[in-house]
Hints:
Keywords: Hydrolase. By secondary structure, the chain is α/β, with parallel strands linked by helices. The chain has helices at 36-50, 57-63, 68-76, 82-100, 109-118, 131-140, 162-172, 187-195, 210-214, 224-234, and strands at residues 23-26, 123-130, 150-153, 180-184, 199-203, 220-221.
Amino acid sequence: MDDGGSLSDPAGTFLGMGKRGTHLVWDWNGTLLDDIDAVIGATNAAFEEIGLEPITLARYRELYRVPVPLFYEQLMGRLPTEAEWLVMDEAFHRHYWLRAEVCGLAEGAAELLASRQADGLTQSLLSLAPHELLVPIVRRHGIEGRFLRVDGRTGASTTGKAEHMVRHLVALEGVPPERIVVIGDAADDAVAAAHVGAKAVLYTGGSHSRASLEVVGVPVVDSLREAVAVAEELAA
């Protein structure tokens, strides 16, 4: 896999089969990867470095926004300066990636991905995690070959997922937006889906509270198995 993602065909399953069935675009952090404890731990370690008070999981889920500078605005009462943002971003990622090494996949994730592949259904992975860090961790979990593509962020971390979604769909070559359902844990996943004419299902196991997800206006579920079932209904 290069820095532009990948097109996988480990068992002749995917190539040429993108024109039927629902195509799922999975989010990574907080969706397939059960990393919310790592996120909170890294957030508070970074906050300590920059003199902010620690935050609880409930408060984090209440305030979290993408792009992430908007999250810091909620905490600070103003947007961070460019210099402050660079310090905050570096501190968070330094602490997060150490913790992410011991995070497991969300409950049922590996089985769902394998089952869809066995059924000849397509799926891909799009994350705002840096691409060069995303690919190795996906590979270590043994699921890289379940996806048509694995794409992480290649630019600045001060924007949301919408434009990354555009590039991801172009690279999928022929999967129509009306057949695509995005499964993620953040309101920004639904925004990115709408930006390209796709649908979305949001999962409560990650960065947002159920209440903050429900205002987005798309289905909200408490398990990945339910997310897949609802996604199939949406694209039927």
